[in-house]
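Quick question: who can interpret this fold?

. . .
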Amino acid sequence: MLTTPEQEQIGKDNFYEAVGISRRDFMKTAAAAGTGLGALYFGYEKLKGKPVRTAFIGTGDEGNVLISEHPTDYMEIVAIADLRPANLKRTVLGSHPIARKGLNTVLGKAKAAEVQHFSNHRDLLAKKDELGLEAVVIAVPLNQHAAVAIECMEAGLHVLCEKLMAKTVMACKEMIRTAEKKGLMLAVGHQRHYSVLYDNAAYLTKMGLLGDIKFIRAQWHRNNSFPNSDAWQKWNGSAKEDRELLTKMEQDGSLKEFGYETARKLIDWRLYNETGGGLMAELGSHQMDAASIFLGKVHPLAVQGYGGKNFFGMEGVGPESAWKDDRDIDDQIFVTFEFPGKTHEVNDRDISVVTYSSMNTNSWEPYGEAVFGSRATLWMKTEKEALLYKEASKDSPGGVEQRIWVVDSKGSGPVLDSYETSAPSSAANAAQAGSGDVISRGYREEMEHFCYCIRTGKDELRCNGHVAMADAIMALTANLAMKHNKRIEFKQEWFDASSDACPEDDFAA
C-alpha cells in the first residue's frame, strides 16, 4: 500500500464521503446530542451517579496507557497494584508526555496522593471493602489474566481485562462462567470495538459498499533487528530495585505464587511462551478481531500457517546481540484464515480469505488491514486513518486517483461512482468534522462504557467475554497450526462457553 500523499488524501476524503452520505441522518442526530464521541456513537449516556471506584492491577506499559486515557467522569482510580516498585512510581510520575502521562498529570498531585499503592493484587483485594472498590482493570502478563480476573470476580468485583483474554481457551471459559455465576461485568480490551473509525468502516462493509469481500490482508511488521531496538526486551533496561526485589522473590519462592518462574520472565514476559502468546496474541489478535468485524462477526472455518524463530538466536544471521537472544516466541509468522462468505451455508465454495503476517526484520509498510471488495478497497492504516478506493466498473473508472460519491442503484442499495474534481464534497467535510480532529483508538470509550454498564446494570458490552473468547480462539489456534505445521478446522463447540471442548485439548488440533 505505497501511495503518494495526494493519493492518500483522496482515499481519506473518499472514506468520509461515503460515511457522510450513508450515515447522514445518524450524523445529524449524533451532532445534535452534544455528548462525547463514545456516547454519541455507541449509545450510552453520561454517567448518572458517582464514578465507579476502580483499581488498576498491573501498571506496566499498557496499564499506564489505560490510566492516562481513563475517563475521570466515569471512573475514579482509588488504588494501583504491581509487583514491580518502579512501575508504581512511574504510574505516579509518568513516563511519556502523551501515552503515559502519570497520575500527577491526569489527576493533579493532591488527588494522585490519595491513590493507594499495593505490592500485589491479593493485598489489594484484602482491602477492597475499606477502599469501597467496585471494579478492577487488569493489565498483567497474559499467563495471569485468568487467575487474577477470577480472584477479583470471586471477590465480587467487575473486571475489565486486557487482551488477549487468557492463555488458554479453557481459561477464557472459566472467566465467563465465573462472571455469569457472580452476575458481574466482564469486559476485554479489544479496543477496536470502541473505535469510531472502525465503527464507521464496519458500517460501510455491512452496507455492501465494498461489494463481495473475498480477501483481507492484515499485517504488523516491525524491525527490531538492530541492537537494543526491541521494546519487548526490557530486562537490561529495567530498574535495579525491580530486578533485586524480583530476584529475591524468585529465590525464596514467593514469585512463583504469583505465576512466574523467574524474575526475567516477569519483566520480559512477551518473549516467552510460558508467560505470553507471541506475535499472534499480542499483535495479530487485534487485527483478526477487526477482520471478523468487517466480515460480520463470523467465526473462522480453518487456519494454517508458518511461524519460526528465524533471526533472533541464530548464530551468523544477525548482530551479536541477536545471536545471544534466548526468546521462545517466533520472530516471523505468516498465517491464512478461511472465513465463511455470505452464502456459505448454501454454497461451501463461498470463502473469504484473511492473511496475517508479523515480522521483526522489516517495517516497510505501516501496520493495518486492507479489505479487498469486488467494488472497492478499504485500507485501515495504523488505527488512525481509513482510506477508500473504488474499483473500475463498466460505467466509471476506479483507482487511487479517483474521488467517489455514493448513489442509490435503482432501489438495490447504495453503490460507489467516481467523478472528476479536486476537492471533497460538503458531506465528506461534515463527516470528517463530526468524527473529531483526533481519532481515538477506543481506550477511553471502552472504559466509559464499562462503567456505564456497571452503573445501569445493562450488560451491553461490545467486547464481552464471549466476543473476546472468539478472538482468543483465533489467535491460539493459529499458534497451534504454526507449531504443528498443519491446517486446523475450527469446531463450533470451542466457541461455546458452556462446553469444555477447547483447541488445546483437541487431538485433531
Summary: The chain has a mean pLDDT of 91. The first strand starts at residue 52 and ends at 57. The chain is about 35% helix and 20% strand.
